[in-house]
Amino acid sequence: MTAIHVNRVKQRLAAGEVVNLVMGDYSPDTAELLASSGVDILWGEMEDGATSWREIGDYSRAADLWGACYMVRVNHNHPALIGRTLAMGASGVCVPHVNTADEARAVARAAFYGPKGMRGMAGGRRSYGAADYLREVNENVLTAILLEDIAMVPHLPEIVTVEGIDIFYVAPGDLSQSMGLTGQTTHPDVRSVVEASIATIVNAGKVAGTLVNDSTLDWALGLGVRVVGTSWEPWLAAAARSFADRARAGRSL
């Protein structure tokens, strides 16, 4: 009997390191390509994407091969969704629209077995061959909550005190919409709320995450963000445009 896969990303966060996260729909093969290229957290998408229950096992195996963490965003803060996602093999779970401390506690309660929580007693593939599965999985599950509504702001000082949440992820896009500034993520009012929220998280000694791109990465790191997320689609689009433009230019010579 052996220990289950250790969640290296959770260990690195505990050690104070910065990790990266790549979101977007992709196949298990693409997930493995991203993990082998240095991506720390692969983001499965069950809210705004097509990740299926049966795919979670293959995605998580692809991540495991390279020491990455496969974390799935569910579409609702419900214990059955959180528990099933983990039972199917995900190493972590991300829960949207968490606006109060009680909602954050509900995430932790659903993600851990007792005595930390009340996750449904189903093991799934991560229990295979484990010497002490319940203890081991409780030590290795990665939990993240999305702070994406202006309604969370007055509750954030209490939210960051909740035990069992690893990542407090500020989402500028949905936050802008909740402020009546849809899509205006660089609007001064939106940027002010994002920066103040990150400061609250960091000052509490917790791990802050947020969405970045090439132009905002240094800004986020400067604020103390330790989980920097982005999407792979812009990378692919930029590379495709560059290749196509160079090919067209060569053809016209």
Shape: globular
Residues in helices, as a percent range:
40-55%
What is the CA-CA span between the terminal residues? 65 Å
What is the N-to-C succession of helices and strands?
A: HEHEHEHEHHEHEHHEHEH
How many strands? 8
Give the gist of this structure.
The protein has 253 residues and is of the alpha/beta class. The chain contains eleven helices and eight strands. The chain has one domain: Phosphoenolpyruvate-binding domains (TIM Barrel), CATH 3.20.20.60.
Entry keywords:
253 residues; alpha/beta; TIM Barrel; 8-stranded parallel β-barrel; 8 strands; 15% strand; globular
What does this structure look like?
The protein is an alpha/beta fold. The protein has a single domain (8-251), classed as Phosphoenolpyruvate-binding domains (TIM Barrel, Alpha-Beta Barrel). Helix content is 42%, strand content 15%. It is built from 11 helices and 8 strands. The chain has helices spanning 8-14, 28-36, 55-64, 79-87, 101-111, 133-140, 156-159, 172-178, 188-203, 217-222, 233-251; strands at 19-23, 41-45, 69-73, 92-95, 142-147, 167-170, 207-211, 227-231. Strands 1-2-3-4-5-6-7-8 form an 8-stranded parallel β-barrel, surrounded by 7 helices. Strand 7, helix 10 (217-222) and strand 8 form a beta-alpha-beta unit. The model has no long low-confidence stretch (mean pLDDT 94).
Give the helices and strands, then pairings.
Layout (H helix, E strand, L loop, with lengths): L7 H7 L4 E5 L4 H9 L4 E5 L9 H10 L4 E5 L5 H9 L4 E4 L5 H11 L21 H8 L1 E6 L8 H4 L7 E4 L1 H7 L9 H16 L3 E5 L5 H6 L4 E5 L1 H19 L2
Parallel strand pairs: 1-2, 1-8, 2-3, 3-4, 4-5, 5-6, 6-7, 7-8
Helix pairs in contact: 2-3, 4-5
